[in-house]
Amino acid sequence: MTSFTSTIGRSSLTGRPAGRRLFRRSTRYLFVAPALLYLALFMFYPLLYTFNLSVFDVNAGNFVQGGAPFVGLQNYIDFISSPDFASSLAITLIFTVGSLLFQHAIGFALAMFFNLGFPLSGLLRAIMMVVWVLPAVVSASLWRWMYAGSYGVLNALLGLVGIHSTQSWLADPSTALPAVIIANIWVGIPFQMMMIYAGLQTIPTQLYEAAAIDGASAWRRYWSITVPMMRPVILTALLLGFVHTFKAFDIIYVMTSGGPANATNVLSIAVYKLSFEYFRLGDGAAAANVLLVIPLVLSIIYLFYSRREERGL
Predict the structure, then answer these.
(1) Who has the most CB within 10 Å: 7, 123, 136, 149?
(2) CA distance to 39, 119, 303, per residue, from 306 (Å)
(3) Residue 241: partners with Cβ closer than 8 Å, 6 or more residues away
(4) pLDDT in tens, the chain (313 residues)
């Protein structure tokens, strides 16, 4: 009798913690289930569907009725071998690099300025972030109005300094791409500024004080302390800025729709035209996957480099 009771007691005592552990494990999955469901519905399923669409010759007719012929990688080959791909890729890289360099340089300078901690610096940072939180369509519409011909703000400002101009900056192939780049620089500066500013806040002030005591100049402190300590933040800000700018669509579509004469026809605009203007949905899906590959490869290189840095290799 004693042995039976003790056995029951031990099983009940050991059963409770096991049940609790099982409950805790199940609740972990319940907490992450909404996020997993969101990723499955809005990320993984569209990716799989787009890849499936890209290996079929889908157009407006057979998209509804079905029966699109399987073409394998032919859509990818046709898109990459087309003359429009090389020009669109070149325009995309010019737009991305040109925007990102100035966004990062100006954002870094502003972050260093706000890091001085003068009065009302927080208010000014908040005002600058309004540019970032504005919908891209609103920002693009503002810049399109500024670049307009006889009634544009830019031409009016030139008139104040004695330069009479009725130039329609977005209608000229030689000025359309620089004009769009300037607008995109203005949109992206606050993001780069806040990323760099957050990183600057993590650098101990004792390092600068010790360097100043040792006689290091401000320029020397910048290159010997700020840049090495900020390297992970700089790389992350550049990567996120590259990914965001490389796939930019709304600001270009609102301002120029890829024109004039395809002067601003970036890859994202080419994907849109293939899919929703020419209704070549299979080709458009293949082009969208090509657009995804370049930021994906760059992200993998960044992660590999970061892992090597963490391991001290």
Answers:
(1) 136
(2) 25, 37, 5
(3) 100, 103, 104, 188, 191, 192
(4) 445 444 444 444 444 566 677 767 777 788 888 888 998 998 899 999 999 999 999 988 888 777 889 999 999 999 999 988 999 999 999 999 999 999 999 999 999 999 988 888 889 998 988 888 889 999 999 999 999 877 788 888 888 888 888 888 999 999 999 999 999 999 999 999 999 999 999 999 899 889 989 888 888 988 989 988 999 899 999 999 999 999 999 999 999 999 899 999 999 999 999 999 999 999 999 999 999 998 999 889 888 888 877 776 5
Predicted TM-score (pTM) of the model is 0.85
Q: 81-311 domain in CATH 3.40.50.740?
A: no
